[in-house]
Amino acid sequence: MIRLITSGLIVFGVLAAVAGLSSALFTTNPVTISGNTFSTGTAGLGIARDWDEKYEDSIKGEMFDDLVPGGDPAHSDFWLWNRSTAPIELNLQTELLKITAPDDLKQDLMIAFSCDVGNDGPGDRDGSIPAMSLADWEKKGVIGKLGILGENGPPDGKGTDEARCTMTANLDEKSNAQGETATFDAQFTGEQKL
Ligand SMILES: [Ca+2]
Ligand SMILES: [Ca+2]
């Protein structure tokens, strides 16, 4: 039996503004997300921008305003922590919510995630989700394989209870999108590992 743990889930808003080569002017503000927390039990996830900051239910997103077709990807780092008081391990998964973008940008803006559990480099518990377009994220819903957090421990930036994660955004090299804006939230959940 799988027990879904959706407490302490997390949101992290991102704006990906796409710049043309010659001009870039964006007025959109970063999205702040809150109030999307569901609590179903004793377990939970915390999220923080860095491990020495306080883990929260949600953190403010970032805005990227310099993506160009085929250009350097943008990165956003954050940490996830198993703050469950029960001695359980969590399968990490994520879903992009509230996606807004013009159709062409939805097809062309690629989003990937990776998590290094323990902040110690590659290992059995680490996970990643390869780059997918916003359109595919929208279609697929919740996606797992982001890693496995060990039982709760102190939020000290060490141990399998914490993961250092990165979101990567890049614009397909064939994209014609210019001066468009995409927004979305990333919501992380932990599913009890049995
Ligand atoms: Ca690792
Ligand atoms: Ca720890």
Describe this structure in words.
- The strands form two sheets. The protein has a five-stranded mixed β-sheet, covered by helices on one side. It has a five-stranded antiparallel β-sheet with strand order 2-4-9-6-7.
- With 194 residues, the chain is mainly beta.
- It contains two helices and ten strands.
- Helix content is 7%, strand content 46%.
- It has helices at residues 103-108, 134-140, and strands at residues 4-18, 45-48, 58-67, 74-82, 90-100, 109-117, 127-133, 148-149, 162-171, 181-192.
- The radius of gyration is 17 Å and the shape is elongated.
- It starts with a strand and ends with a strand.
- The structure holds calcium ion (2 copies).
- One calcium ion (CA) binds at residues 116-118, 120-121, 123, 126.
